[in-house]
Amino acid sequence: MASVDAVAVGQSGLLIGADRVRHGRLHQAGRRLRRRPGALAGAVVILFFVAVALLAPVIAPADPNEISRDRRAAPSADHLFGTDDLGRDVLSRVIYGARVSLRVGLVSIGIALTVGSLLGVVAGYTGGRLDSVVMRVMDVMLAFPGILLAIAIVAILGPSLFNVMIAVGIEAIPVYTRTARASTLTVKELEYVIGARALGCAHARIIFRHVLPNIVAPLIVLATIGVAGSILTAAGLSYLGLGAQPPTAEWGAMLSTARNFLRDSWWMATFPGLAIMLVVLALNLFGDGLRDILDPRLRD
After folding, report:
1. 55: pLDDT strictly greater than 60
2. What is the mean pLDDT of the chain?
3. What is the total count of domains within the chain?
């Protein structure tokens, strides 16, 4: 009985110790983030746009697709950001556009991160012919400019917001595959992975329990910056008419409409353009700070 109690006490002590370690790491990460004003400012801007996207139905002053007679009205007390060529409130469309742009960025990078990481880990861990085939396919994809590859995919699938998510996700897969493979080549030679193989652990168990958790840091940093790139690519596709279709409120589509009225209706392009710039800049600043925090070579 005493031995059972001792084991229980030991296990509870280990759990408490693990909780303290995790809390300590989170505290250190928060402290490093506070030391980087650029990353902190980026995080604040990102949280602001996320809140705007989530609260769009509450804070938007009007229905984003409501047409009125006040066409191309300049910014005023009634319409803070003015109206577009159909009399729709630009502020409401920018607010709802945050929902669309952030969703496209997160979903597309989620696709790229999941598929690319698995391909890279399996290729790097397995090696041999499979590694060669996977990397040659990635090299072929990287030979095409990203925007052109995305345009080709959307042209095949058809113009829609869903197809833009797929196209941008596929276009970004090679970057995550190469990063995951490079990290896996290093991790698989470490002692605990070699020991797991020597003990006869299944390859899938080794990959998911010993390799993936130890290569996730660079992938998270890459994904954070990648969301910014995917938002830009999606906006470019919508600008070309291949992404969000009318009357969906999306920043790139709003810019596409505004290009015909730049001389006398500057607000139609200015506000969605500023939204894109702020989100992309914030994601890049936060991604750079996250890299400094997670990379042990750059820690204070």
Report:
1. yes
2. 87
3. 2
User: Given this model, what pLDDT does residue 28 score?
Assistant: 62
User: For 115-143, what is the mean pLDDT?
Assistant: 93
Instruction: Give the DSSP letter string of 197-237.
Output: HHTT--HHHHIIIIIGGGTHHHHHHHHHHHHHHHHHHHHHH
CB 116 within 8 A of CB 128: no
Neighbouring residues of 291: CB distance < 8 A, sequence distance ≥ 6: 221, 298
List the beta bridge partners of residue 89.
Answer: 83
41 Cα distance to chain centroid: 18
Q: Which of 113, 110, 111, 108 is nearest to 161 (CA)?
A: 108
Torsion of CA 169, 227, 251, 233, to 10 degrees: -50
Contact 284, 228 (CB under 8 A): yes
Indicate if 9 and 45 belong to the same structural domain.
no
Provide the domain limits for residue 180.
37-298
Q: What is the pLDDT of residue 296?
A: 56
Q: Are residues 91 and 18 located together in one domain of the fold? A: no
Buried b (16+ CB within 10 A) or exposed e, 130-167: ebeebbeebeebbeeebbebbbebbeeeebebebbbbb
Domain CATH code at residue 167: 1.10.3720.10
Instruction: Name the more confident of 31 and 232.
Output: 232
